[in-house]
Design goal:
The chain is α+β, with helices and mostly antiparallel strands. The chain has helices at 12-28, 53-69, 102-114, 135-147, and strands spanning 3-7, 38-42, 45-50, 77-79, 83-84, 90-96, 119-124, 127-132, 155-160. It folds into two domains: 3-8 and 100-160, Alpha-Beta Plaits, CATH 3.30.70; 12-96, YajQ-like, domain 2 (Alpha-Beta Plaits). The protein is elongated, with a radius of gyration of 20 Å. The protein starts with a strand and ends with a strand.
């Protein structure tokens, strides 16, 4: 029985490369001189800091540009609001979201059931497995999910015949 998995994974090597490029650009750009602007990856959180809230937002903008160039979706990022740090500086934590949350997985399963396609959808940890008798039905599900905006980046992996 053909099946595939719907997942939401971050390409960590590309994210780290984009972070490295952003760090180099922030270090070299004239408008960041003397602002103590920095970017750091800690676990699954990016910590951006600078001497003002405006500069932190500019650092976030530089990071987002580098991520887009490296084809990493901005839907994986969850940026909060800048918080005051020590000595009048400002800090911004950006959480990198990976995996499909239960609520989104239920929404995907509901979408598939509402279309009344001859497939079964089941939730597994942070992915959704779709299985059906015909490969064409599975391709219809992929096309339908690509047309929907669920607020997360989806990949279709582990296709088995």
């Amino acid at each position: 029985m053909p099946s595939f998995d719907v997942v939401s994974k971050v390409e960590w090597s590309e994210l780290k490369n984009a972070l490295d490029q952003a760090q180099r650009e922030v270090a070299q750009r004239f408008d960041f001189k003397g602002t103590n602007a920095s970017l750091e990856l800690k676990d699954k959180t990016l910590e951006l800091s600078a001497n003002s809230e405006e500069r932190v937002k500019a650092v976030l903008d530089v990071l987002q540009q580098k991520l887009v160039r490296r084809k990493v979706s901005l839907k994986h990022l969850d940026a909060g609001d800048p918080k005051p740090g020590p000595k009048g500086s400002s800090r911004l934590d950006v959480v990198v979201k990976e995996g499909i949350e239960q609520e989104k997985a239920k929404q995907i399963v509901k979408l598939i059931k509402d279309k009344k396609l001859k497939v079964q959808a089941s939730m597994h940890e942070d992915s959704v497995r779709i299985s059906g008798k015909k490969r064409d039905d599975l391709q219809q599900v992929i096309a339908m999910l690509k047309g929907e905006d669920l607020g997360i980046e989806l990949q279709y992996v582990n296709f088995r015949d």
